[in-house]
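Marked as duplicate of an earlier ticket. Keeping the data here for the record.
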Amino acid sequence: MRFLPILLLTVYCLPAQQPYDLLLAGGHVIDAKSHTDGVRDVAIADGRIARVAPHIDASQARKVVNCSGLYVTPDLLDIHVHVYHRLTKPAPGRNYGVDPVSFSFRSGITTMVDAGTTGWKEFPDFREQVISRAKTRVLAFLNIVAPGMVGPEKEDDPREMDAEGAARCARANADVGKPSRIRRDRSSTEPPIPRQDTDDPGRTTSDELNNAAPNPGAQFSV
């Protein structure tokens, strides 16, 4: 029995457990999945949302951030951006890529999808210079036009469409993002593209573009 007082004293002196690493307190939470739209506290542990409730005791968290007057949402996705400054000289006004980090986190965006700025020719540089370096997660739509968005002279020329090259690039970079569609812009005033676009039998005609994917009509992974 002589050890009982020492044991009790040791237990009494243990610090209170703090199960949460971070508490976002008093923010207006909007979460469509859980149908939440109101003031809530959000507790985070081990990098994950651990609890959402009208009130969570601040003493349970190692750090507390007062979010009163602010909106708290799951991370947002911007599915149409242009974030590549190309190597080659573009047509006037066509080099309009922005820095992904400068235009993402400040708006609650953690993932951006580049909408076909590059074709297969410049995609390796795009991946190295932007996708691999940005703190923002960057995915991409791959342009069916091999040089990408460099002006209407090439973008609207069926001879510049290289479905086989796009398919090879997509397969080689499948880890970059989710399945995506091939980009091909057409204005409402453009005449139909003729079946035989070129005298070069080695080039792909417009009717064959959809059949160049691993499965006809399938979406590429880029």
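See parent ticket for discussion. The chain has two domains: 17-72, 76-221.
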